[in-house]
From TrEMBL:
Pfam families: E1-E2_ATPase, Hydrolase. GO terms for molecular function: transmembrane transporter activity. InterPro entries: ATPase_P-typ_transduc_dom_A_sf (IPR008250), ATPase_P-type_domA (IPR059000), Cation_Transport_ATPase_IB (IPR051014), HAD-like_sf (IPR036412), HAD_sf (IPR023214). Keywords: Membrane, Transmembrane, Transmembrane helix. This is ATPase, P-type (Transporting), HAD superfamily, subfamily IC. Belongs to the cation transport ATPase (P-type) (TC 3.A.3) family. Type IB subfamily.
Length: 538
């Protein structure tokens, strides 16, 4: 009977997919099937209802609950069995799409496939309630994680969301309040004490003290006067100024930063650390599960499959990265690519363009050397003598002199050929080729050119002052990711041990696997909780 249940679930899924493809063809709607969110969204063709991600997860939780109820009733009255199977099929569709994507598009066996095998085996063994419970647990975990990720992304955007939708426009000596969309380049805008600057531009009259920590991470407000640039979303704490508009709305630096942040926290299609770890564990778990099947039986085989870390680590590792991106944005550092922050810990050599370096940076370079054993190097277009003097003053390990701009990229490639992972620190515009050649690139161009900057990381104040903090946070992220991996692996090993020693079944293995997820989730949230405690005590 339950083999027929497997056929029912598969037939239901295939029918749904065929219907969706027909709808796709009719409506000619391109569908992006790159991640869980996009895959779940395709069920909206069947429901003809567009809901938020949170509401969709709640919807699937309710359906899973119904599946559990009807599954229990089916043991008393078999007439409820088709309804239970229908509810289970429907609640499993989002996950089945991930299995399909792995097999058909990626052409590989990964953790999603293992879980899919485990779910079908659970159903085939007659554990309909357990199969429905497992589907429900996936959606409950997804609901909780979606909320946590939403809050983290919201906090990340909040720092840059202080923008006015109106401005005081100076026309013929008269100040007129105008909607921001009516402000054009070259207009004169008046901003006074307490106001948020609504545009990017240059001061043409007046002096003001401006709090621009949201952009640069500077703890103290800075005084600016005629000729100095100012940026939207910063606040005047003293004085008043007139600004000639260079950019407004979507063209401001803060708007471009928010767009970059949206992409930096969009981890789909990126081989982040969690994805790499999950892939490495697939075949060992698969071999152990089916290799022990003749000795333990099919129930324990499914229990071992449930010990795979794929689903958990794919969630908690990106969440850790997201939370550290949140922290680092408050330091005046813009990360364009979350993977760059993950990889920064493994850099072997920091290669600095000499422009922007000064002899008085000795203390800063001392801090850099203390953090981790990595080489410090300088590349300069100056002759040997001045380059060597600066290198000796800053106590760097290596220096290159008389280097033309086009040759910087070649030096980076030579270092990489020696097995070195290179982080290049320079100007995001002038050093674009070197930036692209390096494993990781850090720009000192600041907020003015953030949209066209070639670097993966931008120091928004245009100085090296926050570089030690950047490297420290990268090191802390690496430790957090490794701890998250250890917690999930420990849960998986414990499940396998319980299978061999205690012969635990499918349901206990599911619960223990969820425990690993939530301990990993707590670890991922640790940096934000720690930072909030520091803020409260300060």
């Amino acid at each position: 009977m339950f083999l027929l249940g497997i056929e029912f679930v598969l037939a239901g899924y295939i029918t749904t997919r065929v219907f969706e493809k027909i709808q796709d063809h009719k409506e000619n709607v391109p569908k992006d099937r790159t991640d869980t969110t996009a895959l779940v969204q395709s069920t909206e063709l069947t429901l003809a209802v567009k809901t938020s991600e949170r509401e969709k997860k709640l919807h699937y939780i309710k359906v899973s609950g119904a599946a559990i109820g009807f599954s229990a009733l089916s043991y008393l009255k078999p007439i409820f069995l088709p309804v239970a199977l229908l509810a289970l099929t429907y609640s499993s569709i989002p996950y089945m799409r991930l299995v399909e994507k792995s097999i058909v598009e990626k052409k590989k066996v990964d953790g999603y496939v293992l879980y899919g095998i485990a779910d079908l085996m659970t159903l085939g063994l007659g554990r309909l309630i357990t199969a429905s419970f497992g589907a429900g647990m996936v959606h409950v975990a997804g609901f909780i994680i979606s909320n946590v990720q939403g809050r983290s992304k919201g906090e990340l955007a909040d720092d840059f969301s202080r923008q006015s939708d109106k401005a005081w426009l100076l026309k013929n000596g008269v100040e007129i309040e105008a909607p921001l969309e009516k402000i054009d380049k070259g207009d004169i805008v008046v901003v006074n004490i307490g106001d948020i600057i609504p545009v990017d531009g240059a001061i043409i009259h007046g002096t003001a003290t401006i709090d621009q920590r949201t952009l640069t991470g500077e703890s103290q407000p800075v005084e600016k006067t005629e000729g100095n640039p100012v940026f939207a979303s910063t606040r005047i704490v003293a004085g008043g100024i007139q600004i000639r508009v260079d950019a407004s709305g979507d063209e401001t630096a803060v708007a471009k930063i928010m767009d970059i942040l949206n992409h930096s926290v969009d981890f789909e299609n990126k081989q982040l650390q969690g994805e790499k770890w999950a892939d490495k564990w697939t075949w060992p778990v698969l071999a152990l599960a089916f290799g022990s099947m003749p000795f333990l039986g099919p129930v324990q085989t499914v229990a071992i499959l449930n010990a795979h870390i794929a689903q958990n680590i794919r969630v908690v590792a990106p969440l850790s990265t997201l939370n550290y991106l949140n922290l680092i944005s408050k330091k005046g550092i813009l990360i364009k690519d979350g993977q760059a922050l993950e990889d920064l810990h493994d850099i072997d050599i920091l290669l600095f363009n000499k422009t922007g370096l000064r002899p008085e940076m000795v203390e800063l370079f001392t801090d850099l050397r203390k953090q981790r054993e990595r080489q410090l190097a300088i590349v300069s277009d100056d002759p040997l003598q001045p380059t060597r003097e600066l290198a000796e003053k800053l106590q760097v390990d290596t220096y290159f002199h008389d280097v033309l701009p086009a040759d910087k990229a070649e030096i980076i490639r030579q270092l990489q050929a020696q097995g070195q992972k290179v982080c290049f620190v320079g100007d995001g515009l002038e050093d674009a080729m070197a930036m692209k050649s390096a494993d990781i690139s850090i720009s000192l161009s600041g907020a003015t050119s953030v949209g066209s900057d070639a670097a993966q990381i931008v120091l928004m104040d245009g100085t090296l002052a926050h570089l030690p903090q950047l490297l420290d946070i990268a090191n802390r992220l690496s430790k957090n990711l490794n701890r998250g991996l250890l917690l999930n692996v420990a849960a998986g090993v414990f499940i396998v041990a319980c299978v061999f020693v205690l012969r635990i079944g499918i349901l206990p293995s599911m619960i223990l696997n969820e425990f690993g997820l939530y301990t990993g989730l707590a670890n991922a949230m640790l940096p934000l909780l720690t930072e909030k405690k520091k803020t409260i005590h300060s």
